Amino acid sequence: MRSLVEDLLSKSIPELRELFLERLRPVPKGLLEALEVDTRQGAHHLAKRIRGRYRTNRSEGQRLHTLLRFEIELWAQGYSLVAGVDEAGMAPLAGPVVAGAVILPQNYKLRGLNDSKKILDHEMREELAAQIKQDAVCWSYGFAEVEEIDRINIYHAGLLAMQRAVQGLTCLPDFVLVDARRIPQCPSPQRGIIHGDALSASIAAASIIAKTTRDAHMLELDTLYAGYGFASHKGYPTPEHCRALKDLGALPIHRRSFGRVREVLGLDPIQNVLFEESPEEQQVEAAIAHAQ
Question: Which of 21, 50, 67 is at the close of a domain?
């Protein structure tokens, strides 16, 4: 009876390349060694590329393990359900700010998982988001609408969206990891991590949920408001968007607390308190703490 390796060696080199480089099938024991002594043209090169695939896989595995370092520490302390929280849409001139919250299974490693800002291919972001939603213990998102952004400012609106995302989880997290923030009235212990979306798997997953959810919402708004290009720039202050804003005027979904929008509307700039919270801002903090 012929072995599996013998059966594979009866295939052409292009067929083997498709199986083990394009379709990434598991490589059976002995095949690499057999290819390295195979006399066919391209066999040695194929073996070299498969070994390169091994090195890439090891490197990605090490990267993903490092991305779990905060979660591993918390799991070892008995915090089984660790949620990551992040937001998307702080800088745009239009649309809501959206936060994602995700609890990943312990020791979860998803190839390609990273800060959503580092994933430039939108199709890859969508694929990762779909896989995260399928695999997560639970996940959620929260919106802070334009009216809320203008009323309480963008920073506090981001916190409100995060708060809503955590509240939307179907299971209460034991601990929450947040990208560089502290969520008001968080029901669980929390830790803010600067650049957390690039350092924590849970926060990275949340950033992908937040980004893809907001992008989908802006695509819907693009069908309602023609001519502004929301499908391409998602409301960010690109030259294209700024030209449309100047030529066509501000929409109800434009943030009237943002300077470029206020300029188009002929409104004075908003002066921010730089060093100390006013009593009014303290009241806003309290309002966020009790928002549902």
Answer: 67
Helix (H) or strand (E) holding 69: helix 69-76
What CATH number does the domain containing 121 carry? 3.30.420.10
Is residue 236 situated within a structural domain? no
Please state the domain count of the chain. 2
Phi, psi of 158 (to 5 degrees): -60, -40
Predicted confidence (pLDDT) at residue 225 exceeds the cutoff of 60: yes
Q: What is the pLDDT of residue 29?
A: 87
Question: Quick one: which of 243, 81, 97, 248 has its CA closest to 169?
Answer: 81
* DSSP reduced 3-state for 123: helix
Specify which residues 254 forms β-bridges with.
94
Asked whether residue 21 is domain-assigned, the answer is yes
Whether residue 164 sits in one domain with residue 279: yes
Domain that holds residue 8: 4-67
Q: Which of 27-41, 48-62, 168-182 has the highest mean pLDDT?
A: 168-182
Residue 8 inside a domain? The answer is yes
How close are the terminal C-alpha atoms of the chain, in Å? 68
Pairwise CA distance, residues 262 & 53, whole Å:
53
Residue 207 has pLDDT above 90, yes or no: yes
SS3 for 144-196, per residue?
ECHHHHHHHCHHHHHHHHHHHHHHCCCCCCCEEEEECCCCCCCCCCEEEECCH
Report yes or no on 228 lying in a domain.
no
Digit-coded pLDDT (tens) for 236-281:
999 999 999 999 999 999 999 999 999 999 999 886 543 344 444 4
